[in-house]
Amino acid sequence: MGHRDAGDIHENHYNYRFSGHSKATSVMTTATPSAASALPVASSARQYTRGQALPALLEKRILILDGAMGTMIQRYKLDEAQYRGERFAAFAHDVKGNNELLSLTRPDVISEIHRQYLAAGADIIETNTFGATTIAQADYHMEDLADEMNRESARLAREACAAFSTPDKPRFAAGAIGPTPKTASISPDVNDPGARNVDFDQLRDAYYAQAKSLMEGGVDLFLVETIFDTLNAKAALFAIDELFEDTGEILPIMISGTVTDASGRILSGQTVEAFWNSLRHARPLTFGLNCALGATLMRPYIAELAKLCNTYVSVYPNAGLPNPMSDTGFDETPDVTSGLLKEFAQAGLVNLAGGCCGTTPEHIAEIAKALASVKPRRWPSQYRNGGDGEA
């Protein structure tokens, strides 16, 4: 991989190109609203080499994303030996809980979960790669397997999509790119605020490798999700842009953050408006929120994004708040979650909806049914009718 330093930003490019010899960390600068408004915004006009049908589909109807992979894996009650399989029977470290490994040792389980979500009505399914970076896999001493995990997970998702796709309802595999368990903006040591356990370049390298393997495996788009640190997300988007330059491919990008508490901020401190203005330069196909708060508590922040974003808005909340007494570990049953998301849709807030932790194919089926007849959100008036800064 060739590393480019983040210098001049040429805003008329399909994404953003970097030149010069300054450190890559200069890309970390948060865009101001005035600067961001000058950026090209018509994400649907980008010349995608994969997933080309998605912008038109998002104009016609609310698309459905799948639900939780981890929740479904828990239903199988796999033990240590089943996680290991024959290939890793003698591996020196415990691997139970390393869900990404199952793409190699139990591909039947992962494929079956994909098929269940597709049968429930999902237009887009996520690869089983939320933690498939070298940084995350280091926790299991399996960082050398990250590339294989991503390629195989992408292949499994793409095969499932091919089996369910029809001319009227094509299906898409999104390469899931999680935040990693490390944060570039926050100290892991309360006694040393300046300490960091990862830096921008390490994140960029890990994300580039992940995105490259996902692309090789056949994904149709990328999903940078559950963002709690904007700087981590910037590293992921920088890496994806490098990959686009290196390969000539341009895939749609979905971006989804997570508001961690009632303050309405992500963990690294930004409000949702600041979060949007920090990342809008990537010209995502969708921008929204997932995880953390259930739909009820997430609504005001989705409503804010719906007014701000000159792209399609996504929402895939947890099934309410955690409840250890529930089978899924969360409060909401399918009818409750689908009812809440239907109200979001009827209020004109969303273009894509699905589920995160605690949601199942039953949740997705109810969400798909509830939103089937609701028109998708229209972009805010300031972005309509063309012109500079509009779409």
UniProtKB/TrEMBL annotation:
Gene Ontology molecular function: any one: cobalamin binding
Enzyme Commission numbers on file: 2.1.1.13
Any one Gene Ontology cellular component term annotated for this protein: cytosol
Keywords from the UniProt entry: Amino-acid biosynthesis, Cobalamin, Cobalt, Metal-binding, Methionine biosynthesis, Methyltransferase, S-adenosyl-L-methionine, Transferase, Zinc
Enzyme class: transferase
Cofactor: methylcob(III)alamin; Zn(2+)
Matching InterPro entries: HCY_dom, HCY_dom_sf, Met_Synthase/Corrinoid
UniProt cross-references to Pfam families, sorted A to Z: S-methyl_trans (PF02574)
Domain called Hcy-binding: residue spans: 51-371
Record family assignment: Belongs to the vitamin-B12 dependent methionine synthase family.
Classification via PANTHER family: METHIONINE SYNTHASE (PTHR45833)
Name of the protein in its database record: Methionine synthase
Gene label: metH_1
